[in-house]
Amino acid sequence: MKIITDLASGFMGLFQSGGKTFVGWMSSIIPVVLLLLVLMNAIIAFIGDKRMAKLAKASSKNPVTRYLILPFVSAFMLGNPMAHSMGRFLPEYYKPSWYAAIAQFCHTSNGVFPHINPSEYFIWLGIAQGVQKLGLNTMDLAVRYLLVGLVMNFIGGWITDFTTAYVCKQQGITLSKTVDLDG
């Protein structure tokens, strides 16, 4: 009987600990994330959908803007998963590479910009807690993660361009490299 009560106590303790963590977040990270989301939605509303579409079209012209700048702007302004939707403005040929770059960026920016991917913030908090126990600055880690992520996401997106070209050639498929915003 003691084993059953110990298991039940441990099980309830898990949820009590989770509740304490959640209450802590309610007074720390959740208000920050909420206010960042409000700010980003206000900026998008101010800029407008058509201007956002023009930004994506202009960004599709070279790999640096397509896989470095546009993913950063999209993730920062739209957050995950909405940042992926910016790919709809890109030509079909670049969509696989766009997905590769943006999907990774929504993870690598979490330490500096928690509003981008709040659903995975608990992973960052776990890593940050270990770094804090070592007496190190978590913002240093967050900035390094962001910078390495920007470079690696760019490389991943650009390499995906080459794999897309290879698969298109292999399958005899031609994907458009232009986009029509009116159609």
Automatic annotation (TrEMBL):
<dbReference type="GO" id="GO:0016740">
    <property type="term" value="F:transferase activity"/>
</dbReference>
<keyword id="KW-0812">Transmembrane</keyword>
<keyword id="KW-1133">Transmembrane helix</keyword>
<dbReference type="InterPro" id="IPR004699">
    <property type="entry name" value="PTS_IID_sorb"/>
</dbReference>
<keyword id="KW-0472">Membrane</keyword>
<dbReference type="GO" id="GO:0009401">
    <property type="term" value="P:phosphoenolpyruvate-dependent sugar phosphotransferase system"/>
</dbReference>
<keyword id="KW-0808">Transferase</keyword>
<feature type="transmembrane region" description="Helical">
    <location>
        <begin position="145"/>
        <end position="168"/>
    </location>
</feature>
<dbReference type="Pfam" id="PF03608">
    <property type="entry name" value="EII-GUT"/>
</dbReference>
<dbReference type="GO" id="GO:0016020">
    <property type="term" value="C:membrane"/>
</dbReference>
<feature type="transmembrane region" description="Helical">
    <location>
        <begin position="22"/>
        <end position="47"/>
    </location>
</feature>
<feature type="transmembrane region" description="Helical">
    <location>
        <begin position="67"/>
        <end position="87"/>
    </location>
</feature>
<protein>
    <submittedName>
        <fullName>Sorbitol PTS, EIIC</fullName>
        <ecNumber>2.7.1.69</ecNumber>
    </submittedName>
</protein>
